[in-house]
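step: validate -> pass
step: tokenize input -> pass
step: predict -> running
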Amino acid sequence: MLLLVEDDEINQLAIKKGIEKKYKVHVADSAVGEIKILEFNKVDLILMDISIRGELNGLEFTKELENTDKYKHIPVIVVTAHASESDITNSVNAGSNDFLSKPFSVQELLGKIKKNLD
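step: predict -> pass
step: emit ->
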């Protein structure tokens, strides 16, 4: 099962529709929503936007997950419109496993997911 953390409803729908034929997908728009899903589901991979609702942004929450024994084994792919070199570097420093900038094709996303699940 995948967890998509995305604050934009249109992006939530588009990403979910693109990958739900291959993967079961839960959606959250904030770190609070994500933690609730993580507590009650076995999540194999997280797709994390940098801009999410709540007190923590996606990178801050990725870092928090990386520092939590219960969740640090879950691969995180940062999927975001923030695509500068510093955004990529900050994503890696936060503990993400991969990075994909918007816009992207469904094939690109599925390739990143497969690579990080193998």
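step: describe -> The chain has a mean pLDDT of 95.
step: cleanup -> pass
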